[in-house]
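Aim 2 progress update. The chain analyzed this quarter is reproduced below.
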Amino acid sequence: MAGVLLILAAAIFSADRFGVLDYRCLLLSEVRNLRGLQAKDRVLYRGVGIGYVEGMRPAGGAALKFSLRLRVKCSAFRQIPLDAAVRIEPQGTNDPYLVNILPGREPPPEDYPGKVKVLKEATAEDLLLRGLRDVLDGVTEVSRAKSTEAELERLRQENERLKRELEQLKEK
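Predicted structure tokens:
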């Protein structure tokens, strides 16, 4: 019995050390075009490799789509929002393709149950809307900065006025 426990402990230690247990979370998605994507190709989130393509198969239904199974690290899985999108992209000129997970707008739920999330494919319209939202966010930030700058200048002038009044009161 002690030998079995020792072997089991050694197996768990080895699996953890060599990363076998790293990719325990699963992302599912349906895409229209695989573009040469293959099993074991990389999965990126915010430019960092978080997993690999476990498998793909034709999806059921009238539309020609493919189901993707992506194995990812659970630490990254917890950071991926439910409104994130999947896009298949080339790694380089002659390199294979990869799956890029585009971040969503909503923060990920902290108490999300389970280790499986279903993500949608990023369409051209989604990418355009994401770009427009990023531009609008930038304009909003600039507007906030300008209004904050104006408020700061108003406060400086008010501070100077109060200093002058305090000096006048001290002289009396």
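The chain has a mean pLDDT of 86. The CA atoms of residues 26 and 151 lie 49 Å apart. These observations will guide the mutagenesis experiments scheduled for the next reporting period.
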